[in-house]
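Why do we bother with holo predictions? Because pocket geometry can differ from the apo form. Keep that in mind while you read this record for hexanoyl-coenzyme A.
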Amino acid sequence: MSLSLAFKSIISSQAIRNSLNPSLIGIQRRFQSNEFKNILTEVRGKDKNIGFIQLNRPKAFNALNAELMTELEQAVKKFDADPSIGCIVLTGSNRAFAAGADIKEMQNKSFSEVCKGNFLSNWTALAESKTPVIAAVNGFALGGGCEIAMMCDIILAGEKAEFGQPEIVIGTIPGAGGTQRLTRVVGKSKAMEMVLTGDRISAKEAQLYGLVSAVHPVDNLVDEAVKLAERITRHSKLTVQLAKEAVNSAYETTLAQGINLERRLFHATFATNDRKEGMTAFVEKRKPNFTDS
Ligand code: HXC
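The structure, written out:
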């Protein structure tokens, strides 16, 4: 049995959990971390396999300052490297997912400072995660907040969510993928309208344009995101990773290149135990027992 499977069976037993010895308590603490100042992290889901990250600067509407972004990068990389984690959920508060990069922090920066320091170049951890990431967006997702939501694989929105790229209003433009990812998702005309006016769109409109996959009541949103994450984690982690790579390639390649890559990745699943197990389980009319191998 792998270490992660062993750990899952340990924590699923309440009786054993009550008699945890100090070393096991140490392992469990890893999943309920207060090691960060601007975000909260914990492990959720019935099988404790969902990495949960909550942006937590409520007084600043979760404005994304350098310290928060460094912490977010560390948390995403840690969950991504953890074999027991099959999906990550990223959320904010009911009022704000994130109201953008921290304007107070940027206010006095000079061109040479941001250029020489390559400001924003470290905002890539979410987009680089091999583990699927679901953004659960309640409230404002503006500027950098909309941009980090778009770095995630799936966006679910609460009914009162609002999305926008209002940088133009403060004399700048999107700098973490807003002009690129938004345009690929909603098309040139709507992206231009949003980027050139700074106007926000509602959750319903965001769903209409394909920016979000579903809209839920505010209070249910996080639970729905965790449920969706759990549905993903039922499958082979290895196959999920290949499927995610194939979908993401649609944004990077020509159609012919993407179709070729997809076919090769499909072929590659025939080198895995999980492809054999999945098909065998279907034929034998039973549930598959994936081993992520
Ligand atoms: C720093 C921010 C902030 C931000 C809100 N706050 N957004 N602080 N950076 N991006 C702070 C406010 O200063 C205030 O704190 C508190 O949060 C509440 O905000 P209010 O404005 O008082 O609330 P409200 O009237 O309800 O308006 C909410 C809002 C508005 C619509 C979200 O705050 C707003 O327009 N924020 C800026 C949105 C924006 O322009 N985002 C893009 C940023 S540029 P105090 O202490 O003052 O009361 C960007 C660049 C992207 O993201 C480039 C790549 C990342």
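The first strand starts at residue 32 and ends at 33.
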